Amino acid sequence: MTAHGVSTARPLNPLFWLGGPMLICVLATVLLATPLRVFGLALPEPVFPLAMAFAWAVIRPSILPPFALLALGLFLDVFWGGPQGLWPLCLLAAYAAVLAARRLIMGQDFLFMWGWYGLVIAAAFGAGFVLMSMDAGAPPNVLAVVWQYLATLALFPFAHRLVERYEDADVRFR
Amino acid sequence: MSLRDGPLGDIRVPLTWSAAAALIIAVIIAGALLFSDRRETMKAQAYDTARHAVDVVASPVGNVISAPVHWTHDGLESLRGYFFAVSENRKLKLELAAERSWRDRYVATDLENQRYRALLGVATDPPLPHVFAHTVSDARGPFANTRLADVGADKGVTEGNPVLSEHGVVGRVVGVSDHVSRILLLTDLESHMPVLVVRTNGRAILSGDGGPTPKLDYVRSSAALQEGDRILTSGDGGVFPRGLPVGTVEKGLDGQWRVALDADASPIDDVQILLFTDFSQLVDENALAAKNLPTAMTEEPSQSIVPPAPAKPATPAGIISGPDKPAAPSAAKAASAGKASSKSAAKPAAKAAHHPAAPGHP
Fold first, then answer.
1. Cβ proximity of B262 and B342 under 8 Å
2. Minimum-distance CB partner of B144 among A66, A82, A139
3. What's residue B173's pLDDT?
4. Which residues pair with B164 in a beta bridge?
5. What phi, psi does A70 have (nearest 5°)?
6. Which of A47, A80, A95 faces B23 most closely, judged by CB atoms?
7. Quick one: average pLDDT of B82-103?
8. Cα dihedral value B39, B41, B44, B48, nearest 10
9. Do A63 and B18 make contact, defined as CB atoms within 8 angstroms?
10. Is A13 in the B-facing interface, judged by CB distances under 8 Å?
């Protein structure tokens, strides 16, 4: 890439494409942890940062998102009361999967990307299942994992919105 | 001269590579955290500063967020009570009529029970102190099932305290800050609780797995479990008091015996924390401590140990046996030293035997 090409690139402001979504993830997680039951059913508990792990890797490769995901994962661990390091590893597994298959995912239509998103978060939940089985010495309930997976799968429109908003921000990564 | 103008200015590391390097560093940090984390329940030091800090911050936030939920719930209850007063009154009258027969049976059984207890000399457990709390956040995922309650060490809550709703056991306290405590629910993967089956008095371990109905492991019972069997805490291990209601046995979709928790029938936001740590708090330790122990009968070793008779050594040919006398003083000296040391050892032993046993170790 020429120096001219670099100079015309519009650098992304980390506050907007990383900081803002991080804050929204934390607030949404806290909000959905409200002890409330509607007709005997508890609120869903999707993993919001998984949508970010997908979107950030698609928008552009960068040094910052892995550390942002590390921070978000640690927040989930201490807020939900799980073992420290569990969710960071799951989020980073999803980020790594998208980063490796980025060229295949980019530019695809909405439903195709949703399919990719489903595969990526399945890998993250699979990693969580294995790590938690090793930590606790017994496998978690598969149905409970599937419920949380489905709730997280439903978050794809938010991830897609973030991708659409920022994927053209830096011409080097079109 | 800027770095860009230098000889290294043309070297550019691809961003994907630098992102991958950052990813590897982050993975190493996360892995180190996971493998160094000791989320051992019942240990204060396992609940680290980060968890305390997040709980302290999350509690007021959760309180604010859940306040409208409490108000809405209370308001809906009032409205429901107003609009359905007549039908509810009719229903309550029917229930009251049915309950009267139960009350009579309860009174009769209670009297009979008291008489048997008096005959057997069984001491009943004293009532346990408890505090009420609101839960302000609720984690329900497959990997962690915990709640935050808005009371903490200021109200006497400590690690290990059992937590109940109005219907049954919810879990136990695993972390305490000044005004907040974290409750590990029975459904959490790390939760294991000894229980008993009321019908058979069989024992089992209730193990959470992240799902809504924890499973029964290590079932020890002469008769197999049946659907609908009542499950109570067994009190084994001393973490929970005996006899707290837990739930009802049901067959899970995976074919395992599971327990539908009684606590699920009650509102999620009100809990009761029993200030129970172990059984020693249920009894008067001073009464247990023995006051008059019999005097220890220690033996005087010098009287019982008979010095061995000096064996006549066989005198081999060519060796002239030495006189016996020079050996005698050293043997006597050794014997007297042994006597002194055994005496000095016996004295504190006798002294310790007179001393009353330490509290808690009668």
1. no
2. A82
3. 92
4. B169, B272
5. -60, -45
6. A95
7. 88
8. 20
9. yes
10. no
| B74-83+125-282: CATH topology | Thrombin, subunit H (2.40.10)
Q: Is A84–B19 a contact, with Cβ atoms under 8 angstroms apart?
A: no
CA dihedral for A19, A25, A26, A27, sign (positive or negative):
positive
Ranges of each domain in chain B: 74-83+125-282, 284-305+334-362
Query: Is A138 close to B269, i.e. CB distance below 8 A?
Result: no
The tokens of B223 are what? 């008769």
Show which of residues 49-78 on chain A sit within 8 Å of chain B, judged by CB atoms. Answer: 60-67, 69-70, 73-75, 77-78
Query: From B214, which residue of chain A is nearest by alpha-carbon distance?
Result: A141
The pLDDT of residue B232: 92
CA of A118, closest CA in chain B: separation in Å? 18
What is the pLDDT at residue B192? 92
Residues 202-221 on B with a CB inside 8 Å of A are: 207, 209-212
Residue B281 has pLDDT above 90, yes or no: no
Token pair for B156:
């006497």
From the list A130, A138, A156, the residue with the least C-alpha distance to A48 is A156
Mean pLDDT to the nearest integer, A73-86: 90
Nearest to B157 by CA among B135, B136, B172: B172
Residue range A8-50, pLDDT digits in tens: 445 678 888 889 999 999 999 999 988 877 777 788 899 999 9
Write the pLDDT tens digit of every residue in B342-354.
Answer: 434 334 433 433 3
Q: Do A89 and B189 touch (CB under 8 A)?
A: no
| CB < 8 Å from A in window 42-81 of B | 48, 50-51, 54-55, 58, 61-62, 65-66, 69
Tell me how far apart the alpha carbons of residues A3 and B292 are, in angstroms, rounded to a whole number.
Answer: 95
Q: Is the pTM of this model over 0.80?
A: no
Nearest to A30 by CA among B184, B63, B258, B86: B63
Among B12, B23, B41, B172, most A C-beta atoms within 10 A, so best to mutate, is: B23
Cross-chain Cβ contact B62/A30 below 8 Å = yes
Amino acid at A107: G
Query: What is the C-alpha to C-alpha distance for residues B240 and B123, in angstroms, rounded to an integer?
Result: 18
Token pair in block for residue A166: 């920022």
Interface A–B counts its CB contacts (< 8 A) at 174
Residue A42 amino acid letter: A
pLDDT value of position B345: 39
Residues of A in contact with B32 (CB under 8 A): 85
User: Model ipTM?
Assistant: 0.83
Which chain B residues are within 8 Å of A6, Cβ to Cβ?
A: none
Q: Which pLDDT value is given to residue A62? A: 87
